[in-house]
Amino acid sequence: MAQKIALIPGDGAGIEVMKEAERVLDRVQAKFGVALERESFDFGAERYLKTGVAMPPGQLEVFRKDFDAILFGAVGDPRVPGQVHAREILLGLRFGLDLYVNFRPCRLLDDRLSPLKGKGKKEIDFVVFRENTEGQYNGLGGVFKKGTADELAICEEINTRKGVERLIRAGFAWAKANGRKRVTLGDKSNAIGAHELWLRTFKEVAAEYPMLEATHLYIDALAMQLVLKPEDFDVIVTTNLFGDILTDLGAGLTGGLGIAPSASLNPESTPLFEPVHGSAPDIAGKGLVNPMAMFLTTALMLKELGYDVAALALEKAVEHCVAAGETTRDLGGSKSTSQVTDAVLARL
Ligand SMILES: NC(=O)c1ccc[n+]([C@@H]2O[C@H](COP(=O)([O-])OP(=O)(O)OC[C@H]3O[C@@H](n4cnc5c(N)ncnc54)[C@H](O)[C@@H]3O)[C@@H](O)[C@H]2O)c1
Questions:
Q1: What pLDDT was estimated at residue 137?
Q2: To the nearest whole percent, how much of the chain has pLDDT over 90?
Q3: Best mutation site among 279, 286, 292 for ligand 1 pocket (most ligand atoms within 8 Å of CB)
């Protein structure tokens, strides 16, 4: 039976890369016996500006019950003040579907793309497990005496035992299942008292995985080590905010946002697959957007749905295009968005 996937292109670059992903999915479905039924949803700025509604009530339940996965482009539009719609859609999906793992592989596909002297494919290959439903991104807090000299702005950070433990467990389980050797915790327990919960939980879960090396670094030191010795990292588990920052650093180490994929996961919910980049208003609509992050994201989705061969073929097609310089200009090539898709399809 076909698995059902929801497509949410979103805004700007999101719409462009989704169009290209659909071309790739057409080919993958025809060639690798992948059975997917696709349905598109027009949640984004255009709809929000017309109707005032970002995502209709009850939609999360529909995604939870009727869909096996969601493939997402990107949201963000300068016409919407405060990006209210983007927050409601993206955080609505991540929080509403309780997708507690933000899974971000950071693998250098070609030595040429490394910004680090002497570090190549062999050294830069790690995965970040970013907590995705807690931390500071919950809207708790507020502003008092706004615009005065006494202004006060407070943002609460949530860390629950349940939330911390399930994220750390997911990191260890994935490391073991995928032949990785080391799990590293990045926190700030030396300065943020609440992070002691992370450190204590990490040690407890690590004790259940004696075959894996468990290391702990304060997040600032971790950021430095990631640049100096990326080969020291296999799997990193960390908070929502730190993971957000670290994964952009990871994107920087592997060729930039044009090539960085991610997935938001909970084995008991409907997974969400999204490139790390946003709607890129500076280049959207000009044929300059790199669709490879979306292709690698699509590969993550195919793998999660059980299509390992198709996922690997798509990953390899992208990797070979990168090696051959068949890329958009952010990776040093001269191809347009759709020409990159042509190249990937040819290799598929
Ligand atoms: N997941 C998401 O939907 C998401 C993520 C980040 C930002 N946003 C939103 O996107 C809008 C723009 O935000 P931003 O500029 O900070 O981040 P961005 O990721 O859209 O762009 C940052 C820089 O990276 C470049 N870039 C991004 N994607 C690229 C691609 N596929 N190929 C080549 N270059 C690419 C852009 O041109 C820009 O210079 C904002 O409204 C923001 O809120 C959405």
A1: 87
A2: 97
A3: 279
On the 0-12 / 13-18 / 19+ scale of CB atoms within 10 A, 176 is middle
**CATH top-level class of 1-100+266-348:** alpha beta
Residue 290 corresponds to which tokens in the numbers above? 């790199």
Helices (H), ranges, 75-156 = 84-86, 92-96
Domain residue extents for the chain: 1-100+266-348, 106-264
* Cα 275 to middle of ligand 1, angstroms: 10
Q: Mark the ranges of the chain whose per-residue pLDDT is less than 70.
A: none
CATH superfamily of 106-264: Isopropylmalate Dehydrogenase (3.40.718.10)
Q: Do domains 1-100+266-348 and 106-264 have the same CATH topology?
A: yes
- What is the predicted pLDDT for the residue at 138? 84
Q: How far is the CA of 248 from the centre of ligand 1 (A)?
A: 11
Measured in Å, residue 291 CA sits from the centre of ligand 1 at 13
Q: Provide the mean pLDDT of the chain.
A: 96
280 CB within 6 A, ligand 1: yes
pTM (predicted TM-score): 0.95
228, β-bridge pairs: none
| pLDDT at residue 139, rounded to an integer | 83
> How far is ligand 1, taken at its centre, from the CA of residue 74, in Å?
8
Strands 101-107 and 141-144: unpaired
